[in-house]
Each structure stands twice: as C-alpha cells, then as structure tokens.
Design a protein that fits this description.
Length: about 220
C-alpha cells in the first residue's frame, strides 16, 4: 500500500521553462562568442552530469562553474568560468512557477493522508526559494546538497528512507526523469511514476519499465485508487 509519495521538483512540480537557455545566450553574448546556445548548453550539462558521479561531492553552483570551465576548453574559449557562470547562477533564482496541475494534486493527496516529500537534485537554498515563491509547503525535504549525493546514486534514495523511517515498498517516487526518478528509486524497491508531460518516452525504450507512466499529475488520483 502506498503511504508516502516522493516528488522530484524541477520539471515535475515546477516548470523550469527556458531560463537555462536564456542564461547561456546571455553568457555567450557577454564573451562575444557566436555559438548555438542549445548545443553549448547540452555539452555543458553533460559535463556537469559527469561531475555528479565524482567521489568528492560538489554542490550544484560549484558543478556549474567546474563543468563550464571544461566546456570552454572543449570549444577553445578563453574565458573565466568563475565570472561567466553568473547568468546561470542567477537563473537558479529566476521566476519559475508550478505547473497548473500541482495545487489540485497536492490537495487531493493531503486529503487522503498521504505523506508527501520532495527528493530533488539541487542546492537547498534554491529549492527553498521556489517552494516559498510558489507557496508550497512540505514536511519532508531532501536535496542532493543536504544529503551529499546526487540521483541516480542508490544512496540518494537509501538516505531518504533512512531519514524518513519509511519502508521502500510503501513509497511512490514521481518524476520526469527516467534515470533519476525511475531507474534509481526502483533499485531500492520503490514503486515509480514517470511523468512524461511532453510524450518524450517510448515504452519500448524503458528498461526496466516504470510502474506507471502519466502525462499529468492529475492522473495520480487514479493510481492511488
């Protein structure tokens, strides 16, 4: 029986929009480089992701700077990453609002006496900023920074279980990333929901399969029934 739901935050509850691309466009403009912002961002994000698996934990702001330095080197750009990373850091505190299905979904779950948590790959201060901005309140908040580990490392999910005292088979993990919110949680025995708002995934490509695939959080009500 599902007693606890752990939500990913960004892309699941809060719409990140195109703030990251705007930040890259501003940065490239600042250094006078004419490159495709989307391609540059994808390369930058890939290097950041690689750094998440390093033995020494780095918070998200530091990861952005370190991986930007490597991306500059990849493109042969001579620039100070510690300075030019600022537009991206500022974007972490931009106006990002909840998706339209969030408030109704959370209210219904609370009425069913379901424990609700956040499990997010982010720095704690930026997550708390967006929760306050959107008037969201959770009694259980877990970030990569306060647990010193990133998704999909199995210790991210084990630490949530340890800190909460919840049993894995009583938990449902809901998120928009297959690796982070399905593959990772399933390794510790949690049930999973892949929120595929833009219909990006094909069932045949997902191994192991999520327990459920939805396209709106409002569909959670049927799952809980």
């Amino acid at each position: 029986m599902i007693r606890h739901i752990i939500f990913d935050c960004f892309g699941t509850l809060i719409d990140t929009g195109n703030n990251s691309i705007k930040a890259v466009e501003q940065m490239l403009f600042n250094i006078g480089v004419n490159l495709d912002a989307q391609k540059f961002y994808e390369d930058w994000k890939a290097k950041k992701r690689q750094k998440m698996n390093a033995s020494v934990f780095l918070n998200e702001k530091t990861l952005f700077e370190v991986s930007l330095s490597e991306t500059f080197a990849q493109y042969g750009i001579e620039a100070d990453a510690s300075k030019e990373v600022e537009p991206m850091i500022h974007s972490l505190f931009a106006e990002r609002l909840v998706f339209s299905d969030v408030y109704e979904t959370l209210e219904k779950l609370e009425n069913e006496n379901i424990d609700i948590a956040i499990g997010s790959t982010t720095d704690t201060d930026s997550l708390l900023y967006y929760l306050e901005l959107n008037k969201l309140s959770f009694s259980h908040i877990y970030t990569s920074e306060n647990m010193q580990v990133y998704k999909p490392d199995i210790n991210f999910y084990k630490t949530i279980l340890s800190k909460s005292g919840w049993l894995a088979n009583d938990c449902l993990f809901v998120g928009d990333s297959y690796m982070d919110d399905v593959y990772g949680p399933q390794k510790v025995g949690m049930k999973t929901v892949l929120l595929d708002r833009k219909a990006l995934y094909k069932d045949s490509e997902l191994m192991p399969q999520p327990d459920f695939v939805i396209h709106s959080l409002l569909e959670l009500e049927n799952i809980m029934k």
